Amino acid sequence: MSKLIKKSSKKAGLPPGTLVHIGEKKTEKTRVAVVEYDGHGFQEKELKNFDDCYLFPKESAVTWVNVIGIQQVEVLEKLGTCFVVHPLALEDILNTEQRPKVEDYGEDLFIVVKLISYDDKRDEVEAEQISLILRPQALLSFQEKEGDDFAAVKERLRGGKGRLRKMGADYLAYTLLDIVVDQYFVVLEKLGERIEVLEGKLLTDPSTSTLQKIQNLKREMLLLRKWVWPLREVISSLERGEFPGIQASSRVYFRDVYDHTIQVMDSIEIYRDMLSGMLDIYLSSLNNRMSAVMKVLTIIATIFMPLTFLAGVYGMNFKHMPELDWPWGYPLVLTIMAVVAVLMLTLFRRKKWL
Question: Partner of 343 at 20 to 30 A CA spacing, among 83, 153, 192, 292?
Answer without folding.
Answer: 292
